[in-house]
Amino acid sequence: MAVGPPLVYADQAISIVKKKDATGFSRDVCAILLIANITRCFFWIGDHFETALLVQSLLMILAQLALLYICILYRSRLSPEALGGSSRPFSFWQWPTYTQYIEFLAGLILCETILILIFGRSELFVGALGFIALGLESTLPIPQLISNYRQRSLYGFRMSTLIGWFGGDSFKTVYFFLQKSPLQFKVCAIFQLSIDVAIVLQRFIYGNAPPSSALLDEDDELEQALALADE
Q1: In the Cβ-directed half-sphere of 212, how many Cα atoms lie within 13 Å?
Q2: Domain chopping of the chain, boundaries
Q3: What is the C-alpha separation between 204 and 198, in angstroms, rounded?
Q4: Residue 17 near residue 74, CB atoms below 8 Å
Q5: Sign of the C-alpha dihedral, residues 130, 135, 138, 142?
Q6: Cβ(68)–Cβ(98) under 8 Å?
Q7: Count of C-beta atoms within a 10 Å radius of residue 152
């Protein structure tokens, strides 16, 4: 329970490094997991749930920091940063450097530390913090669901990651009910599992053929190679 979920992303990271291309994997997945698991650690301070789940959060934070670095290193040339613009307010999670992501996460930790020191004894606050953490984590598959829909393909999204999501979320849903975990864990696990099912259906409908954007990148690289050869 503690080690399995973080390991799901190891194969995804290896695939990106081998291809030197992060196309197809939504970087917003890293945002959701980092923010959710940081918040879940503060939830644990107010409501001591299973230690295995706390360890899972700590390991997931480390895994996602590494995966985020790899995604930035090998991001697509068609990404908003590469094109010189972003439609998001303050270019959220589409910043050009890894340092900016770390600065944001450090600010988040500082703010949550202050809040838990002030309101940590309030059951209402702790309960709300739990729903925020687990509710946010339950939206994890949504960015990938949207990315798949836009590309009409699951290109770049590893089948091992999908199997890990579906299998892991199925296991943890049963685990939460058997262990009588807090209500937040149960409700959010059921919602997350339903999105996993939708992505499985996308896999059968769209397949994993390269989208047009990936083909354009390959054509550009070929043209550059030919130009260098002519020189």
Answers
A1: 3
A2: 1-121, 140-230
A3: 10
A4: yes
A5: negative
A6: yes
A7: 14
Give the Cα separation of 188 and 133 in Å (integer): 10
User: What's the pTM value of the predicted model, to 2 decimals?
Assistant: 0.74
Q: What is the DSSP string of 200-223?
A: HHHHHHH-SPPPHHHHHHHHHHHH
CATH topology of domain 140-230: Monooxygenase (1.20.1280)
How far apart CA 30 and CA 143 sit, in angstroms, is 10
> What does the pLDDT look like over 108-147, one tens digit per residue?
999 999 999 999 889 899 888 888 888 888 887 888 888 8
Taking the C-alpha atoms of residue 32 and residue 160, their distance in angstroms, rounded to an integer, is 20
Q: Both tokens of residue 184? A: 């937040």
Contact call for residues 206 and 152 (beta carbons, < 8 A): yes
Q: Rounded CA gap, 3 and 57, in Å? A: 10
Does the structure show a pLDDT above 70 at 171?
yes
Radius of gyration from C-alpha coordinates of the chain: 19
pLDDT at 214: 52
